[in-house]
Amino acid sequence: MCMMPRMLTRSHRRKILFSFAALVLAWLIAEVVIGVTGVFKNPSERVYTDIYDAAYELLPRVSLHFGNANTMNDPTNHAGFRGPEFTDEKRPGLYRIIDVGDSTTFGVMVNENETYSRQLETMLRKRYGANRIEVLNAGIPGTNIYTHRLIFLRKLPRYHPDLAIVYLLFNARNEFEVWRELEHKAARGEFDPVSLTHRILRHSNVYRLLRRMIKGGERIEVLSHIAAIQRTLRRRDPFEMKWVLAGLKEDLNGVIDAANKNGTKLIIVHHLHRALVRERVALIKNPNQEASGMATSLDDYIRFSQQICQERGVAFINPVEPFVAAAARGEDLFMDNVHFSPAGHLLMAQLLAKYIEDHAGDFGVAGAAAAR
């Protein structure tokens, strides 16, 4: 009688081991099939490293198609940046600028030569010489200041930029705060099994497929990012604004620290929204009109960011007034709520070029002029 439980236990154990072995084998077969054939592969994975990772990047030599832009003949370069090829090692006498930002910096819906990065390069080369200035466009659609801080730490130092221009957009997604806490734990040397498991699984094709099926693709990710920004601007919830501002302060200071460590000068340019520009134009015509919650929120974030930059001695550009003046003259500066039209890119390039030329000595551009 006492043998029966043991036999049943042994039998169950064999079944469990067999089931586990079958599951592992099926997983391995699926890994190979998905990896080799690309079956069920999300189109975004042919363009981005991993859209669910906070520090995802554009892949090298891939073409993106946005709206009416002829980007299919405009692949990214070896670094995953939009624009012509360049050498990682900066040659002597070259002044290198890197533009960091989201899809506006990348230039969705406009051609590469119309982006403010390329137009800025053209303007500065006319002033300082074609062989003295290089502007790299490191814009990545769907990103924000949290991502940009990580990119500053992990990627940009290898290119030795003299100046980095950051198009600043705050983060309003709760899951970024979870990642931030995992970073804090790692910095304190605390063991975190969740983070370790995620780092291991993210290399699995099957895991990535299941995650996409549950969370949705790139479009869902981008839309959730936009929705979070819009919600934060409209609601003006004190608790939400408190953690958003706390995250913005940590990330912006992190960018500044990383730039200082690598000897890179900084210009911070605050993100623009068409609604704010339109409202300011309306206020010119009707000064008694009351400002909306969204416009008030944007003003709060702009002032907050500017104060941090002033305290840290970093250049800050608030582009609202020049864009309002141009819009009041009838210029069409946006393709949608946030993305510049060619005219908007031109105006941004003009603002940046003038600021850099006016402060050439501070940024070290004067050396490029002297060497010309």
Q: Can you walk me through this structure?
A:
This protein has 372 residues and is α/β, with parallel strands linked by helices. The chain folds into 2 domains: 37 residues; 280 residues, Rossmann fold (3-Layer(aba) Sandwich). 55% of the residues lie in helices and 7% in strands. The protein contains 15 helices and 5 strands. The chain has a 5-stranded parallel beta sheet, with helices on both faces. Helix 3 runs parallel beside helix 13, helix 8 crosses helix 11 and helix 9 runs parallel beside helix 11. The chain is globular, with a radius of gyration of 24 Å. The protein starts with a helix and ends with a helix. 34% of the residues are buried.
Question: Which descriptor suits the 3D outline?
Answer: globular
CATH superfamily of the largest domain: SGNH hydrolase
Q: What percent of the residues sit in helical stretches (DSSP H or I)?
A: 55-70%
Share of β-strand residues: 5-15%
Major β-sheet strand ordering? 2-1-3-4-5
How many E-type strands? 5
Task: Compose a concise summary of this entry.
The chain has 372 residues and is of the alpha/beta class.
Features:
globular, 15 helices, single chain, 5 strands, alpha/beta, 55% helix, Rossmann fold, 5-stranded parallel beta sheet, 372 residues
List the helices and strands and how they pair.
Blueprint: H1 3-37, E1 95-100, H2 103-106, H3 116-128, E2 133-137, H4 145-154, E3 163-168, H5 174-187, H6 193-201, H7 205-215, H8 218-235, H9 238-261, E4 265-270, H10 274-285, H11 293-312, E5 315-317, H12 320-328, H13 342-358, H14 360-363, H15 366-371
Parallel strand pairs: 1-2, 1-3, 3-4, 4-5
